[in-house]
Amino acid sequence: MACSGCDFEFASDRQFTVAKAAAELQAYRKGRLGPTTRLLRDGIVDAELNQGTLLDVGGGVGPLTFELLTRGVSRAIVVDASAAYVASAIEEAMRRGFADRTEVVHGDFLRSASQLPSAHLVTLDRVVCCYPAYEPLLEQALGHAEHAIALSYPRDRWYVRAGMWLENAKRARRSGFRTFVHPPQRIQEVIVRAGFSLVRRRVTWVWTVDVFARTPRR
Fold it and tell me: Which member of 18, 88, 150, 196 has the lowest number of beta carbons within 10 Å of its beta carbon?
């Protein structure tokens, strides 16, 4: 990314506040799951990739992690740049009895990647759009993915770009946090070049949800 990791973490803390973390955690406890999170969970399970270890990049309060831990994943690491989200993820892991199977790391994934282990599965739910320089993010995530990577990212449509422009305008003074629509074809090229093949894809009006598995060597 072009800016420093500290700048990203500062903007993340201002955008993803204690109030937002509490609201998301309350919604999850009531059984409400975001559409991309639900589609990622179902795509991973349908592809039978819900096993081994998980590295959930930008995992927020942890809904995707906890959903997969109840469906076969043995152990998980959640990484998030928001201190409020990290605290909520730790709280929920303890409440659900997953504390011994879950590690929660505070920080920008790009800065902490070298200290993190690889995992059977890496997930990035609505994370690629948070980085202006998305290729280094993907390359680090792919380098940690032993067997599969699953991610959601915005569709490149005029109405998605318009909505994101409005959201960024609102955030400009409040937090300075920005989101981006990156070229979907380029995202897929980076992943395929790293040795992965698309095995599941679901699309909503706004989001593309992809599951890739490592291509077997011949």
Answer: 18
CB within 8 Å of 6: residues ≥ 6 apart: none
Could you give the count of Cα atoms lying within 13 Å of 122 in the half-sphere of its Cβ? Answer: 26
> Please, which residues have CB within 8 angstroms of residue 209's CB and are 6 or more apart in sequence?
36, 39, 40, 43, 150, 151, 152, 200, 201, 202, 203
- Residue length of the chain: 218
Q: Which two tokens stand for residue 2?
A: 């072009």
Domains in the chain: boundaries: 5-214
The contacts of residue 166 (CB under 8 Å, 6+ apart) are none
| Alpha helix ranges (H) inside the chain | 5-15, 18-29, 35-46, 63-69, 83-95, 109-112, 134-144, 158-174, 184-193
- Domain 5-214 part of CATH 3.40.640.10: no
Instruction: Kindly state the DSSP code that residue 129 receives in the 8-state scheme.
Output: G
> In which element (H, E) is residue 75 found?
strand 75-80
Which token pair is 213?
């598995």
Output the pLDDT for position 3.
38
Taking only the tens place, the pLDDT of each residue in 63-95 is 999 999 999 999 999 999 999 999 999 999 999
Q: Which secondary structure element, helix H or strand E, spans residue 53, and what is its range?
A: strand 53-57
From residue 214, how far is each of 27, 60, 64, 185 by CA, in Å?
34, 26, 21, 18
Alpha carbons within 13 angstroms on the beta-carbon side of residue 203 total 5
* 173: pLDDT strictly greater than 80: no
